[in-house]
Amino acid sequence: MQFKDLQLNKPILKALLEEGYEFPTPVQNQTIPLVLAKKDVITTAQTGTGKTAAFALPILQMLFDKQDSGKKGKKIKALIVSPTRELAIQIQESFKVYGKYINLRTTVVYGGTSIEPQKDVLTKGVDILVATPGRLLDLHKQDFINLDYIETLVLDEADLMLDMGFIDDVKKIERLCPKNKQILLFSATIPAKVVELANTILKDPETVNATPSSSAAQNVNQLLFYVGKQNKMELCLHLLRNTINGNILIFRRTKMGISKLEKMLKSNGYKIDSIHGDKTQNDRENALENFKEGKINILIATDVAARGIDIDNLDAVINFDIPSISETYIHRIGRTGRAGNSGEAYSFCSADEKPYIKGIQQLINTVIPIEENHPFVLDPKAKREIHKTPGKSKNKPGRKSEASKKNKKRWY
Ligand code: AMP
Question: Alpha-carbon distance 80 to 204, whole Å?
């Protein structure tokens, strides 16, 4: 999916291109079409997921045709309510960036600062207003804000807004806007009080859930290790001996890979078990039980075997192999760092897995920090390991011959 597939117009696309945005994030992909279809929407997403653009872009698009209207007095057509001034400022800055080539005026008002300059700006007329609740009501009471022409109301960080005690203010603001407006509610979590608010003020809302990437970004300390394929076992052992403690889930792509790792770790005295497609249901359940009861502290799994099973509250996840599907990375590391605890995610990337990391970083909108303080650092410029004479080798590509295995001295 590209931004142009979301039916955004040229001035917006141009601004996005200049910002270096290549692809919409998942929350943008899912939310933007619903907003453009004028639906009420509840989106579960945290900061870092690209949620601001998920409402800012379609709002700019919907108001595009009205950009030069109301020369004699602009009317506020979109209102974004935010619990904190920092967030409000950021939102306004985003509107400015994305709306660079559109003639719509955006301003921000918040408390804790002089009200007079804000009155001056409002008097000149704005199309899009970003505001914190208290200052908004104050300025409305003093007749500097008219909410009669609001077409879209956004409640950003709704859970935080209610935690901060703004529930009555939010309800009041909603009542001051026209009845037939569109409401977009964004919240990092959806506790009962947010559901209650949504039930009272939203009409047949559509829901979008973009939590996995955000929880991954928030509580999980991610580290990337560039390491040669042949050194991954050594690196794993090195980290288990020196760095990683607690309950650990290690992901490998194949059953064969799991068996090798399992054998090596067992021979080094680790209490581990594994789950993969060749194991019986009974074996898998036993492994899981042992892990939960603390009889073992390392579990190795394929993605398919780990899917849908309840292993969370992990201290660390090791991506021994980098997943080729970016979303899988989010699911994997989302198993740690739950319920406000912090977690660790270690990813071992060999030369031929680099493109996967690129895709993952794009999806999570984060550059994963690289750890270079380990004995097996791969030259950053290392290329894929390719057989020079494909088809002529006696062995399967990428596999070592028995003779070479025997010759290799391992230190573990
Ligand atoms: P937000 O979740 O709205 O706070 O956005 C988090 C960060 O992601 C901000 O720095 C945005 O500029 C950036 N961002 C938002 N959407 C995209 C995108 N589609 N591609 C790249 N970066 C983005």
Answer: 20
CA distance 251 to 353: 15
Identify which of 52, 60, 214, 363 to mutate to test ligand 1's pocket (most ligand atoms within 8 A of the CB).
52
Identify which of 367, 250, 386 has the alpha carbon closest to the alpha carbon of residue 315: 250
Ranges of H-type helices in 142-245:
158-163, 167-176, 192-201, 211-219, 232-242
353: Cβ contacts below 8 Å, ≥ 6 apart: 321, 322
Q: Calculate how far, in angstroms, residue 57's C-alpha sits from the geometric centre of ligand 1.
A: 12
Give pLDDT, residue 284. Answer: 80
Q: Is 240 exposed, middle or buried (0-12, 13-18, 19+ CB in 10 A)?
A: buried
Residue 31 has pLDDT above 50, yes or no: yes
**pLDDT exceeds cutoff 50 at 85:** yes
Report yes or no: 191 and 159 within 8 Å, Cβ to Cβ.
yes
* Beta strand extents in 259-387 (DSSP E only): 272-275, 298-301, 316-319, 343-349
Token pair of 223, please? 């580290």
Domains, the chain, in order of start with CATH, read: 3-209 (3.40.50.300), 220-364 (3.40.50.300)
Inter-residue contact 260 to 232 (CB < 8 Å) = no
Ranges of beta strands (E only) in 110-156 are: 128-131, 152-155
pLDDT at 339 over 70: no
Question: In what helix (H) or strand (E) does residue 379 lie, and over which residues does it extend?
Answer: none
Treating both helix axes as pointing N-terminal to C-terminal, what angle do 85-98 and 51-63 enclose, rounded to 10 degrees?
50
**Residues enclosing ligand 1, CB less than 6 A?**
21, 23-25, 28, 47-53, 365
What is residue 231's three-state secondary structure?
Answer: helix
Residue with CA nearest ligand 1 atom 12: 50
Encode pLDDT of 188-207 as tens digits. 888 899 999 999 999 999 99
